[in-house]
Each structure stands twice: as structure tokens, then as C-alpha cells.
Amino acid sequence: SPKHHSQRARKKNKNCRRHSLYVDFSDVGWNDWIVAPPGYQAFYCHGDCPFPLADHLNSTNHAIVQTLVNSVNSSIPKACCVPTELSAISMLYLDEYDKVVLKNYQEMVVEGCGCR
Amino acid sequence: GASHASLIPETGKKKVAEIQGHAGGRRSGQSHELLRDFEATLLQMFGLRRRPQPSKSAVIPDYMRDLYRLQSGEEEEEQIHSTGLEYPERPASRANTVRSFHHEEHLENIPGTSENSAFRFLFNLSSIPENEVISSAELRLFREQVDQGPDWERGFHRINIYEVMKPPAEVVPGHLITRLLDTRLVHHNVTRWETFDVSPAVLRWTREKQPNYGLAIEVTHLHQTRTHQGQHVRISRSLPQGSGNWAQLRPLLVTFGHDGRGHALTRRRRAKR
Fold first, then answer.
1. Which CATH superfamily, name and number, covers A17-115?
2. In what residue span(s) does the TGF-beta family profile domain sit (chain A) (predicted)?
3. Are A63 and A53 in contact (CB under 8 A)?
């Protein structure tokens, strides 16, 4: 039924997933020395890791065990929703000596989230 | 302090103060401390000792912008090719940092070379961090097409790039002690950038900590015509045709290095529909 469907959709939305997080360098006053990009989509992970853990949540064996234990003993927390895959971005900026630098920074963007 | 207050805009700072006020009225100095620590952490993450404060005269070379666009997949290769830029696949594949340097403009016309144009260039590379290992370096020179008469054969130039091995003060005037790094024969009927491999010199200065006496650039004319002397290769600000775009066309030293953190520069190609 439509009601059942909406409940399922709401429940699904609460699960661990990637959310938008745009970091604007002009908002933090860094656009005078960062030439490019003006900002970037960093994303973040948020949501529940409910029992049983779904396959797409990239869970580790440890996360599965912890979730199982949580289901019978709530004093043990559920697994955490964290980035499981990250990617790099390149930045073009002026350094402390007015020299222009192009540098690759690792693990700046969340590509995938999971329960760990 | 005032130099760190820019990290979070005024509205954000007010919010921080409000939150802290609700949390039990902590001292306002703590919010500044928090911001300072916040910025220091981010700068450390970016490998910077302090917040860069660029001068108004700072110039961003077009080459670095194009490299960024190609590297980040912002621009298609075909679009960049129209500017004559080729992505430096090999040097970039071993580096996670590309730095560009303009010479110090202590331009010295080497005496005793009246027939040809020879210059010594000093590039201050002291801003390269100790932990960054340079794998290669290139010197980029711009040359402009020179309109010439029907005598095509007279349009050839040879560009020689040397490392200066001894300070000029220690040698007989007009006789620099140099070693050849790269050479190219060019014809002055095209406008383009030429890239020369100067890795051996830059590696000596950075890895081996040998003194940096600069590079010598020599442009020789195969046929000793004085008609186009000093007009073709942009190694000097004061050229007969003016210096309006000197900031973008002046020689550029580019280093490729890796600080041991993370992967090399990998090109992100935009997926085609």
C-alpha cells in the first residue's frame, strides 16, 4: 500500500548513506590563496546501521558481529556509518612564498559509505 | 589573532559564540583559540606552515591553470591542445606536487657573447619542502613567430640550456663554467612554448644540496643575420616589440615532486556521454 511504501522509503532514508557537504573556500576566507577549485563536494556519511546489515553497506565481519551483539545487548553500540571509499582532489594555490603549486590531496572526497 | 579570524565568516563566528554562550558562558578568548587551532589543523593537513597571504603582484602562470584543468578533468584535452599544451604524462605520473618558479630577474647578460643572446637565470627553489623529493624539472621558454622574408633557411635558431657550475665572479668574464643540459634546433616561423629537461641541475640543487648558480640560456642563430637578433625567444623583459604580456610569457621553471603522502597526480578524464 502507499502508506507501507512511504514507511519503507522513510526507513531506507535513515540508513547509512552519503550526504552532500559542499566546502566553499570563499566561505572560510581562503579564496585569496586557493586559485582552484573555488570549493568542492566533500560529502559525509550519516545514518543507521540496523540489524541485519544490508549487503550494500560494505560491512566488515567485525561490524556484522558487533551489530549482532547489539541486537541482544544494547550496551554495545551499533556499527558506525563511516566513509569506506575516498578519493583525491587537486588544488592550485599560492603558497607562503607566492609560488604557484598544484598538489594532489588524498582522501578529500567520500565516494562510498558503509557500516564499520 | 586577527590574521586567523578569516577562517569562519562573521555569521559563523557569531554562531560559535552563541553555542559557547549556551554551553555555559565560556570566555570569548576560547572561541578565537578554537578558530586558531581549527585553521592550524587544516593548514597542517595541506602541508603549509602558515596561512599564505599572496601579494598583489603574484601571477598565476597560464600553464599551471591549464595543467590544473587537464588534471582535474575540468577541460577536455582537445580544448587544451588548441593552446599547444601537452599534459606531462611521465613526470606527473611520479609526482603529487607540481611547483612553478619565475626567475629572480637578476638577469645577467653574459658578457663576451656579442653575436648571440645568452642569459643567466636564477631560480630560488628554497620554498620546496625538505620532505618533497623532486623527480624531474622542466624549463619552459616562449618563442614568438618572427615575420621573415623569402629566405627561409636563415630562420633557424639553436636554443642551448646550461647549468652554471661556478659563480660568475670566480671565472674570467665572458667564460662561464657550464654544462649542457638540453638543446633544440627551432625555426622562427612558429609561435609556441618549448620545454627543456633541466632535471639533472634541479636534482643536484635539491637532492644533493649542491649550490644553485642558475641556468644559462643561449640562443644562437645558425646564420649570423642581425635582422631578428633577440626577437624570437622570450627570455628578456626588454624586447623591441614591447613587454606587455611579459608576466605570462616569461621563462618558467616547473618541478615535479612527491612528498611521500598519497598517490601521484592521476588525470580524471570526463566520461563521454
1. Cystine-knot cytokines (2.10.90.10)
2. 1-116
3. yes
